[in-house]
Amino acid sequence: MKVILCTHNGGGVGKTTLAVHLAGVCSELGKVLLVDCDDQYDAWEFYAGYKPDDDTDNAIYLSKEGISVITNKNRKSIKKLASSSSYDYVVLDMDTPLPNIVTVIVGSNPDLILIPINYSQKYKALNNLKDTLGVILIMEGKATLSPQVRVVPLGVKADEVAAPLEKLKNKPANCTVSKSMPNVQDIMQESIYEKRNYIWNVPGYEHLRAYFEELIEIG
Fold this sequence. Notes:
Layout: E1 2-8, H1 15-26, E2 32-36, H2 42-48, E3 60-62, E4 68-71, E5 89-95, H3 101-106, E6 112-118, H4 122-142, E7 148-154, H5 158-167, E8 175-177, H6 185-194, H7 209-215
Helix pairs in contact: 1-7
């Protein structure tokens, strides 16, 4: 089982964009569990088309692609559901990660941590990057293996992310900047929140599937 965490301190920076698209590409490789830990339930709504009852936690929706989507805003343990025998990939959409919280939820350390920096929230996301990496550094210290950590520029130039990252003295050992995705934020927002569609299903943007496929490569 590969565990992928999409996270950042703060909202609107692209976590759900990453989470749903990664779940989409992973679903072509094996069984996927997508854990929506956000109280906005955007990942859930992308697949289900409606918001779940706010009083209901651990509700499960099975998408047409066979992706199991679960709400977990209270970050309860779902270890039995997420056991290695059940899923090949577990993708978590989560803001403000806490040390060991992924282990608490799914019973395993993340193999890959993706931190988005999108165009509209670029300065907010960059300013909060230090805090997010600080939490991941603590998480890394408690884990037996170091996860791969990738900062993902969505419509932002990679060197705009690499420069402030380079200045940070304390950051996870295996921390890199992914290549930049073109600035397609407007069509991406329409695709996700209005049409509930992957960006690669939009005519003219089929090539972006390869971008997300590269993100899930775990060396």
